[in-house]
Give the backbone structure.
Amino acid sequence: MPSSRRQASYNPTLTNFAVGLAQSLMNSLANFISPIVEVGSTIGQYKSFDTAQAFRSYNTRRATGGNYNRIEFSSDDPSYNCQPNGLEVTVDDDERDAAGDEGDAQARLEQGKVQTLVSNCVTSHEVDVFGKVRSLTTAMPDFGKWRDPSVDPILEWNAAIEQIATQTGIMPNRTAIGLPLFNILANHPKVIARQPGAAVIGASVEQLARMLINPGMEIKVGILSYDSSKPGGVSAKSNIVGASLYVFHASQTPSQYDPSWFKTFQGRRGGVTRVETYRDEKATSDVHRVKWSRDVQQVSALCGKRIDLRAN
């Protein structure tokens, strides 16, 4: 019996559209907090920086004619294992008939489907990454009572930065804040009091960065939400990052060997911006899909801190 499905083929037109769409979804924080490292093999090793000893300073002096000191990588360094992921969306023949053939009606129909496909992939990745980050990170005790006007959030934020720098010798360079906590932080009286001009109300991310001991801190606010309800159930939307702040170090050029806090190892084949298309005759539909492989790993527990909003 002949198959009802044809082999999927690369769709360059929709891939170009998906690439542009993914760039416009940069409010996603998953790649910010857990940068992507493309790897040649979906299974391999990476360097772990799980103790202060891993950040040691090497003695680089040597005697004339003597041996060089060598940076050592342990045979028992942890491994990543990128698992397959994928999602697809259909364009039913009836939908094509309803759209008609006038102008770019068919192109707009397909672009709308791919937009839904890519945005759902981005949200899914965001939920997965922050779920793992939260599960592997304990909030700093006694920090985060930021509804109390007598508590200074900037002092606590700076204390977290200092702790990371002291333990690792590396200055944290990124902060991710969930929108619910950012709203409280930006309008906190002690934060406003740090700004020049009594008429200034609220603080931007640029102004917040200048209040920190690392004024070059890159700050991003998580605004994406997700619906945790089951299909057909009552909607239960919430901010993905939530009322939390994460301050951490992440390399601008991540690899298998740098001490970024978290990393997302990803196979080179596919990705959420490479669209493939096949025909499903049984469903009388054209099907667009994306596929990728990934593994999110904590590389160094010492390179990041988490502050949760707490009751006063």
User: Anything to note?
Assistant: The mean pLDDT is 87. The chain is about 30% helix and 25% strand. Residues 246 and 306 are 5 Å apart (CA to CA).
